[in-house]
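Researcher: We're teaching a course module on how sequence relates to structure. For the next exercise, students receive a sequence and then see the predicted structure as tokens, so they can try to spot secondary structure elements on their own. Here is the exercise chain.
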Amino acid sequence: MERTLDEIKNEFLEIYKANINREGADKLLDYLLNGSDFFTAPASGRRHSSYEGGLAQHCINVYKRFKNIIKAEYGEDYATILPDESIAIIALLHDLCKVNTYTIDYRNQKVDGQWIQVPYYSYNNTLPYGHGEKSVYIISGFMCLTREEAMAINWHM
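Model: And here is the predicted structure for the students to work with:
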């Protein structure tokens, strides 16, 4: 089932606002909404969720899966081990390193014997931290992370 950008954005916002309440969370959300391409960016150029809105959808998918794994591992008292806010922060924000890095470019491709221009995502990283480190760096500019959150995001690959 293909989802609209508005559906993806609304689901992300619902999860974020229901779970992430620490100081600076509102400023980070404002950045995602108004200073980045988070809700239109792909999650990758050629691999998982490489479509418009794929980054936000990928983060929602990771959130749902991560929460289910935590619940399955620790039972109904999971929040005493890992609070809902931490689950949401780790999962929803783990790939912020990808904001403002993908652009649509074109390349030649032969289709039915004819060369045509086809779009693809090119990657331009203007802040060359490592993958997880960059996400932690971006988040930390807005709100404090616990040591466990920072480590989970940093090492999520």
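Model: If you want an answer key for the exercise: The chain has a mean pLDDT of 92. The chain has six helices and two strands.
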